[in-house]
Design brief:
Layout lengths: L7 H13 L1 H6 L6 E11 L2 E10 L2 E7 L2 H6 L2 E5 L1 H9 L4 H6 L4 E4 L2 H5 L2 H12 L42 H12 L10 H9 L2 H24 L1 H9 L3 H29 L11 H16 L7 H32 L5 H31 L4 H24 L10 H20 L6 H9 L13
Parallel strand pairs: 1-4
Antiparallel strand pairs: 1-2, 2-3, 4-5
Helix pairs in contact: 1-7, 8-12, 8-15, 10-12, 10-13, 10-14, 11-12, 12-15, 13-14, 13-16, 14-15, 14-16, 14-17, 15-17, 15-18, 16-17
């Protein structure tokens, strides 16, 4: 046992031990409240030593010497003399018995609720007991520690791939990862735009303007999703979900290729170096300038299931699953039916195939979250519904910009298509409310939509 406890270095090591403990992760899977522990009979220069642990569903997201603000805000504050804490750490005193006999004083929070987490408390004590003397050597007890344990954007210590569990190659994320390696390897620089240049020069001004309008929406959208996926990768990494991390690495790479592809078309075929943000109307800005960066960026500070739901709904269900799918439908209506711009068609078909995997992952992520906590459904449904209006508004903005829309495009066709995509995603997620996490995996494994090739079609 360390000679000094409740120091900054000691609490950082405690958090690291907690995050490395599978037994603690399972025992504390439903615990989601920060706790301040107080060494009651120690009166250092700044008062009693106290430490703050942000405990969330079997992990410790932050650990530090507690400030008075931490102590005032914490849902749970537990205090005891040093002798009692050392009895706990040596195993001479059980934490539940210490609570019931009031050797541990609960100054904030419910004793009754704490008794329901006796197994988690024992694993917490066991983790603290594993800290060696060198790790607990005295420090000034102030400030953060360089070996700060995982929190937003920080990965838990240890490595899954060197543990007995290894990688689950049958999981949906790993199947998507393997699929990305098999059919996701394409180079935007290899697409032949020779005939596209000829076709572009034969289009009239209005046809070129409408194609530029749609492509500008995709160009900015692809740049946006390439930038905004990073906080989700950090959140998943912090939960040690290695199979999902591996798939998300391909996800980011593919979004980068999509960004490159559209810019290459604009440079080499359209030859347009103007400011294409002129096509970004109010509804487009709500989704891509506001909702998407806010929902994704929030994960850097708040990687909770609620925040992950908002992020994935915005990114995977609305931007990819509703808007991008409707955009592919528009490209098909303009190009495939008229045998125009084969290079652009080829690239959009490859892009759609990639995006089908991205949507599949979003369905998986949201289904996993819902199966774990069905109480997330009302918030998910509200957020999807709140984004439907600006999503449909983007379609209105494109059609409203032109007195006559070329290529025979009709707004009702695209509104109906977008609504069908939206309703399909919502219905698919609603099924997960009644399933266990294992049932979600089985349900997704047999879903042909999640394995579709994603060809450009009507």
């Amino acid at each position: 046992m360390p000679e000094e406890i409740f120091t900054g270095r000691w609490v950082a090591r405690w958090a690291a031990e907690l995050n490395a403990s599978e037994r603690y992760r399972q025992a504390a899977a439903s615990w989601e409240w920060p706790v301040v522990f107080v060494l009651d009979d120690d009166s250092g220069p700044t008062g009693p030593r106290q430490v703050f642990l942000d405990l969330w569903h079997g992990s410790c997201r932050a650990a530090r010497p507690a400030s008075e603000a931490d102590r005032a805000a914490a849902p749970y504050v537990i205090a005891a003399p040093e002798a009692v804490w050392r009895e706990l750490l040596t195993g001479d005193l059980d934490p539940l018995i210490a609570l019931l006999h009031r050797k541990l004083e609960v100054r904030q929070g419910s004793v009754l609720k704490l008794t329901r987490y006796a197994a988690a408390a024992r694993e917490m004590v066991a983790a603290a007991a594993r800290i060696d003397s060198a790790a607990g050597a005295s420090d000034d007890g102030a400030g953060s520690v360089t070996s700060l344990p995982p929190g937003p954007g920080r990965r838990a210590p240890g490595f899954v791939t060197t543990s007995p569990e290894g990688l689950d190659h049958e999981s949906l994320p790993m199947r998507l990862y393997h699929k990305a390696k098999r059919i996701g390897i394409w180079n935007p620089q290899d697409i032949d735009f020779a005939r596209d240049i000829e076709d572009w020069n034969r289009l009239d001004d209005l046809e070129r303007e409408v194609l530029l309008h749609l492509t500008s929406l995709f160009q900015a959208g692809e740049e946006s999703v390439a930038q905004e996926i990073v906080p989700l990768i950090a959140a998943i990494s912090g939960e040690r979900r290695v199979e999902e991390e591996l798939y998300l690495a391909t996800f980011l790479w593919e979004e980068a290729k999509h960004t490159e592809f559209f810019r290459r078309f604009l440079d080499e075929v359209a030859g347009d170096a103007s400011d294409l943000s002129r096509f970004h109307g109010a509804s487009y800005r709500v989704v891509f300038y506001e909702q998407l960066p806010v929902a994704m960026g929030a994960l850097l500070e708040d990687p909770t299931p609620e925040a992950q739901v908002r992020a994935s709904v915005t990114y995977n269900m609305i931007v990819e699953g509703t808007l991008a799918e409707t955009g592919y439908h528009a490209y098909y209506a303009m190009l495939e039916r008229n045998d125009l711009l084969p290079g652009l068609r080829e690239g959009v078909g490859l892009l759609k195939r990639d995006e089908s995997r991205h949507i599949a992952y979003g369905v998986f992520l949201l289904s996993r979250l819902l199966a774990t906590d069905p109480g997330l459904w009302p918030g998910l449904e509200r957020h999807m519904q709140s984004l439907l209006e600006p999503a449909l508004g983007i379609i209105h903005e494109l059609f409203d910009a032109y007195e006559v829309v070329p290529f025979g495009l009709e707004i009702d066709d695209f509104l109906d298509y977008a609504l069908a995509q939206f309703q399909k995603r919502l219905a698919r997620l609603e099924r997960a409310r009644e399933l266990t996490p294992d049932q979600v995996m089985a349900d997704l494994s047999g879903d042909p939509e999640l394995e579709q090739p994603g060809q450009l079609s009507g």
